[in-house]
Design a protein that fits this description.
The complex is a heterodimer of chains A (268) and B (299). By secondary structure, chain A is mainly α. Chain A has a single domain (61-267), classed as MetI-like fold, CATH 1.10.3720. Chain A contains 11 helices and no strands. Chain A has helices spanning 15-36, 53-59, 62-94, 102-114, 117-131, 137-162, 166-173, 178-207, 210-215, 223-233, 237-267. With 299 residues, chain B is mostly helical. Chain B has 12 helices and 4 strands; from the N terminus they run αββαββαααααααααα. A two-stranded antiparallel sheet of chain B has the order 1-2. A two-stranded antiparallel sheet of chain B has the order 3-4. In chain B, a hairpin with a 5-residue loop joins strand 1 (41-42) and strand 2 (48-49). In chain B, helix 7 (165-189) crosses helix 9 (206-234). Chain B is globular, with a radius of gyration of 24 Å. The two termini of chain B are 44 Å apart. The mean pLDDT of chain B is 86. Classes of the chains: A mainly alpha (268), B mainly alpha (299). Chains A and B meet through helix 1, helix 3, helix 4, helix 5 and helix 6 of A and helix 1, helix 3, helix 4, helix 5 and helix 8 of B.
Chain lengths: 268, 299
């Protein structure tokens, strides 16, 4: 005999089905992309058979290699700058008493989050045009540093706010000076937040497209710009390969980030 | 090593100064330059020429004919209208898709919750260009959706799904869906399920529970989620460009084109300023609702 259906309070029919549909919608395009990157056919969306040829081809493409190198250079430098700047700001904002202007400064730092990217992109381009700055890797690094700051700042501040300052007080009681307290107590405790912030900044920089498009110059093509150029010329299996590689890298990165920040929560 | 002996206030502002200086010079100053540019004359070779004019803003609504008469021209107004409409459509789509899922997640054990949230955040952190490109594989004629339909004989001819408003909307919803689910989940997570039991005890049916208990409690998250989806949708560039094929222009693409190929920087600046004004209004609206709510609940 079929089990009698018991009505569960707060349950709605179709809720589970809806959620399954939701996740299918979320992941279907990504799965299709990965599967088709192994397609043998020259026409990217017609399946012919399994092949790794396009991977070999993409990885030996000089343009792709230099674009990947550019992306890496920009992301590493912008991440270092953004993380150092954000760490200092987070320490000033999350430690010590509240002060006048605190909300204004926090708002200023979060500004790149709320301004639409296209507006930031053309404003930055106009700025470089006014001061006569030559567009290239340096202009990209400057622009990336600015919009990476809030992404690095938020996890670091969250970590500091979750930390009990009793440890720092204890260090002072034991005659540690300010530097020693910071170096041996605050910094190690806040490190998971700093690592998490740096990882977010890195991934945001590697993935950025529209701002990079506007402030890049000749010879400073990054990976997303290169992918965009390829898509405009028509869909080839090579686009699928590079897109898949970027996708997988992001997923690995964000998974590591997830575990780092979880650890931080548990020990915090 | 010893930190310089300064009083804590000086030291605090010293630590804040790199962030303040960098954001002021490379974010605030460029915005001011953009505003100034929007009141200057266009240089035919790109960039701007000195001289004050409101021509760029006039151009949004009117066209000049040969006799220098202003004729109302709805071309750009149409683009603004389409942007607002598609952004609203994307927001509603995200809400309809996301609200039940946020509720579903909030009811799971904390282990499952954590796993599902992780699955929702993954797409958010992966490359937007790549994720939108994947939709070309799905939607294009002879694409992944059409092939099986043709094979089964459901359709004979291509559905022409690409380069339509619908394709752009699907792309926008896909782009910003996590931004809707996460804040709604955050407000439902704190939901006390005894409230729902109490409502049932008082003879409320499921519909009434949703309408009078769950929905009001989810409201702050819904408002936040809608703003988070609406703002980037308005200025979106990638989805309209790739899935609209540049034919279904939206504000983001219009601005980009003015700075890249059309070489009318003042007009591009003026449109960007309008976009910023729209966004500011929405953010202020949200801030007002949030502070009103805080006052009411007495937090």
């Amino acid at each position: 005999m079929a089990k009698k259906k018991i009505y569960k309070i707060g349950d709605y029919p179709g809720l589970t089905g809806w959620t399954v549909f939701f996740f299918a919608y979320l992941y279907m395009p990504m799965i299709v992309l990965v599967v088709y990157s192994f397609n043998e056919s020259r026409r990217a969306q017609i399946w012919k058979g399994f092949s790794l040829d396009w991977y070999v081809k993409a990885f030996s493409n000089d343009d792709i290699q230099s674009a990947a190198l550019n992306s890496l250079i920009v992301a590493v430098i912008a991440t270092v700058f953004a993380t150092v700047i954000s760490t200092l700001a987070a320490l000033a904002l999350a430690r010590g008493r509240q002060f006048r202007g605190q909300a204004a400064v926090t708002g200023l730092i979060s500004l790149p989050l709320v301004v639409p990217e296209i507006a930031t992109a053309v404003a930055t381009l106009s700025f470089f045009a006014v001061i006569g700055f030559k567009l290239g890797l340096v202009s990209i690094i400057i622009a990336h540093t600015v919009f990476c700051i809030p992404f690095a700042f938020l996890p670091i501040r969250a970590r500091l706010q979750g930390m009990d300052d009793a440890y720092e007080q204890a260090a002072s009681d034991l005659y540690a000076n300010d530097w020693q307290t910071f170096r041996y107590v605050t910094l190690p405790l806040m490190m998971p937040g700093v690592v998490a912030g740096a990882m977010l900044a890195f991934i945001i920089s590697i993935d950025d497209f529209i701002i990079t498009l506007m402030v890049s110059g000749a010879g400073s093509t990054t990976l997303p710009l290169y992918i965009y150029g390829m898509i405009r010329q028509g869909i080839t299996p090579e686009v699928n390969v590079i897109s898949t590689v970027m996708l997988v890298l992001s997923i690995i990165f964000i998974t590591v980030y997830w575990f780092v920040s979880k650890k931080a929560e548990e020990t915090g | 090593m010893e930190l310089p002996r300064r009083n804590p206030v000086t030291r605090r502002w010293l630590a804040l100064s790199p962030a303040i200086v960098v954001v002021s010079i490379f974010m605030i100053l460029p915005m001011i330059i953009l505003l100034v540019f929007s009141f200057m004359e266009a240089d035919p070779y790109g960039g701007v020429d000195p001289g004050f004019t409101t021509e760029a803003y006039v151009q949004i609504l009117y066209e000049r004919d040969f006799d220098d008469l202003l004729i109302f021209d709805p071309v750009y107004l149409n683009i603004i209208g389409r942007s607002v409409l598609l952004a609203l459509l994307a927001t509603i789509g995200c809400l309809v898709l996301g609200l039940p899922v946020a509720y579903f997640i909030a009811r799971q054990s904390s282990r499952t919750q954590s796993l599902l949230l992780y699955l929702i955040t993954i797409p958010f952190w992966t490359n937007l260009l790549v994720r939108t490109y994947a939709w070309i594989l799905l939607l294009s004629s002879d694409g992944v959706i059409e092939q099986p339909l043709k094979f089964l004989g459901v359709i004979d001819e291509s559905l022409d799904m690409m380069y339509t408003n619908g394709a752009v909307a699907v792309g926008l919803i896909y782009s910003y869906l996590p931004l809707m689910v996460l804040p709604i989940y955050a407000s439902l997570e704190k939901l006390d399920f005894r409230l729902i039991e109490a409502a049932h005890d008082l003879y409320a049916d499921r519909f009434r529970v949703a309408r009078y208990v769950i929905f009001p409690l989810a409201a702050p998250g819904i408002v936040a989620g809608c703003i988070l989806v609406l703002v980037p949708s308005l200025g979106a560039f990638i989805a309209p460009d790739l899935l609209g094929g540049g034919k279904k222009l939206m504000l983001g693409s219009l601005i980009q084109v003015q700075f890249a190929s059309a070489r009318n920087w003042p007009f591009g600046s003026a449109v960007a300023i309008c976009l910023l004004a729209l966004v500011m209004m929405m953010l202020m609206y949200q801030a007002r609702i949030a502070s009103k709510r805080r006052r009411e609940t007495g937090d």
